[in-house]
Write a structure and sequence with these properties.
The structure holds two protein chains of two kinds.
Chain A (H helix, E strand, L loop, with lengths): L2 H21 L22 H13 L4 H9 L1 H22 L22 H26 L8 H18 L2 H7 L2 H24 L11 H4 L4 H32 L9
Helix pairs in contact in A: 2-3, 3-4, 3-10, 4-8, 4-10, 5-6, 6-7, 6-10, 8-10
Chain B lengths: L1 H26 L3 H27 L6 H38 L22
Classes of the chains: A mainly alpha, B mainly alpha.
Amino acid sequence: MRLSSIFAIIAVVITGGILLYGVSDFPSFGDPKSPANAAVPGSESVSQYFITKSYKDTKVPNLVTSVLADYRGYDTMFETVVIFAAGMAIFAILGSVGGESQPRVQEEESSFVDGDHSRIIVGTTCRLLVPVIQVFALYVIGHGHYSPGGGFQGGVILAASFIIIALSSDLDAALRRLSEVNYLRLACVGILIYAGFGVLCQVLESNFLDYGVLQPILLTDGPEMARSHSMLGVEIGVAFTVTAIMFAIYANLSSRGTLRDGL
Amino acid sequence: MIITIISAILILLGVVFFFGAALGIVRFPDFYSRTHAAGKGDTLSSFLVILGFAVYQLKDFHSFSHDWPILLVILKLLAVSLFIFMTSPVSTHALMDAGWEDKVKPEIGEGKPNHLNDDSEKF
C-alpha cells in the first residue's frame, strides 16, 4: 500500500468520525422537543411558521419552493456554487479548459440518413423527442412555484436533452448546440443571476436576498409578489448553472476531457 | 360501474403482460430474446395500465362544461403513454444494436437454420 493512500484513508476515517459524532447530537426523527418542531416561548415553531405564513409572505403555493429559494435562499445559492465547483473540479482533473481551440472539422449533419439503418431510427426519435423534452424542462423550471419542480430538476432535464443529442449522433453535434465556451458562460451567468438578485437587494438598503424590497423594480403589487417573481428569477439562475455543469460533466467524462469523439 | 370494470380489465391485462415480460427476462436463453421480451411486454403493458387509468378517470365525468379538467388529466395520461410508445421500443432497439455491434452471439438451437453469416462479416 502506498503512503499517499494511507494518508487518504486517515483523512477519510477522521472526516467520517467527525460526521458520525455530529449525528449523535441530532434530535431523533419526529421529536416534538426538537428546535424545528417545538414552539419557542412567545412565538411558534419554525415549521409551524412556514406552514401557516409562507403563502401570506410570498404568494407561492409550493411551500418547498418558498423555503428553498426565499427563507433559505443563501443556502440554495451555495448549493448552486457547489454544483459549479464540481464542474470546475472535473475540468481541473481532466484538464481540457483552454486546450486546443481550433475549430472542429465540420461533418455533414445528414451523415446518418443513408447507410446505417439503426441510426435512422434512434436519430429520428431523438430529433422528435428533444424539443418536447426541452419544453417540458422549461415548464418544470417555470412551474416550480405551483408544482414539484424548480431550477435543479428542470436544469437536469434540459441537460439530459443535450446528452440525448450527444448519445444519438455524436458529441460534436451536441457541442455545436452548446459549445464549450457557451456552457462555461452559462454556468457563470447562472450564479451571477442568483447573486445579482442578492446584491440588488443590498443596493436597495436591505439584507442580501431579501427580495421584498425589489417591488419598485419588478413593478409588482406588493412585496409578496416581488418575492414570488424573484424566486422565479433565482430558479432560472440555478437552472442555467445546473444545465451547463451537467452537460459539461457528461461531455468531459465521455471523451476523457478532449471533447472529441465521445462515446 | 361499467367504467370501473373496463378499467380494471385493462389494468389486469397490463399486469398479465408485465408478468410475461418479467418471466421472459428470467427464462429466455440469450441477450436478444431477453431484450425482446422486456421491450415488447413493457411497452404494451404500460400502455394498457395507463389506458386503464384514463378510462377510470371518466368515472366522475358527467358534463363537459363542468368536468373538463378530467379531460386534461386523460390527455396527460395519453401523452405519457405516447412517449412510452415512442421511447421504449427505440431504447430496446438501441440496446440490441449495441449488443450486435459488440458481437454478442445469439443462441441458436440444434438443427435450426442459422442466418447469422448472411449479413456481411459480422461474426
